[in-house]
Amino acid sequence: MKILIIEDDEKVGSFLNRGLKAEGYLTQWLPEATGALAVLRDFMPDILVLDRMLPHIDGLTLCQQIRSQAIPCRILVLSALSEVDERIKGLRAGADDYLGKPFHFEELLARIESLGKRDLQQPRPRTLQVADLSLDLDRMEASRDGQPLTLTAKELGILELLMSHCGKVFSRERILTNVWGLNEDPMTNIVDVYVARLRKKLDEPYAHKLLHTRRGLGYYLEE
């Protein structure tokens, strides 16, 4: 994974550069933000570790420029301005994470690892499709064979979960956690009730069934 560091403090920048290289990352260090957009396009880092208070161009201004130009990288802002309102400013400027100075290197590594797990190249599709079943995630409207399905919010939640992981079996407990949250009694049969309602709307009028039960394990959606 490639990491670009923009930090004007030579001691901090050198420490970050050496420390991240020692962890196996491919790094590049810039002492200021001037020319950073060109470096970002050329180096194409997965993560940008960005100091907020930089000469010539403020870190948050650079952050906004990166987002406006749709340059694909995760941004971790480092700043001595670590109060809540300052962190909010950073996140609203487009940062993915915000870490106050001074910081522990282990925490920085943990945050980098977390950011690295996010897929930059494959944004979540706004329409899910399984066979002739379609779910528009922006409108939260489902249709099958071009015919709209009238579904409740919970039915849509179950459908989105199963369509997002086509072929994967979800236990009743996993569905309960994902759709209802953690406050429901796990012994309730509410999942079975809602899946039965969803199956009636989704599959009953059609010969080809999409919603399946794996006895003793849970439910899954498959062509």
Précis, in short:
This protein is 39% helix and 22% strand.
SSE layout and pairings?
Blueprint: E1 2-6, H1 10-22, E2 26-30, H2 36-43, E3 47-51, H3 59-68, E4 74-79, H4 84-92, E5 97-100, H5 105-116, E6 127-130, E7 133-136, E8 141-144, E9 147-149, H6 153-164, H7 172-180, H8 190-202, E10 211-214, E11 218-221
Helix pairs in contact: 6-7, 6-8
Quick tags:
223 residues, alpha/beta, 5-stranded parallel beta sheet, 4-stranded antiparallel beta sheet, 8 helices
Task: Give an overview in words.
- Strand 1, helix 1 and strand 2 (26-30) form a beta-alpha-beta unit.
- Helix 6 crosses helix 7 and helix 6 packs across helix 8.
- The protein has helices at residues 10-22, 36-43, 59-68, 84-92, 105-116, 153-164, 172-180, 190-202; strands at 2-6, 26-30, 47-51, 74-79, 97-100, 127-130, 133-136, 141-144, 147-149, 211-214, 218-221.
- The longest helix is centred in the first third of the chain and has 13 residues, at 10-22.
- It is elongated, with a radius of gyration of 23 Å.
- The strands form three sheets. It has a five-stranded parallel sheet, with helices on both faces. It has a four-stranded antiparallel sheet with strand order 6-7-8-9, covered by helices on one side.
- It is 39% helix and 22% strand.
- The protein has 223 residues and is α/β, with parallel strands linked by helices.
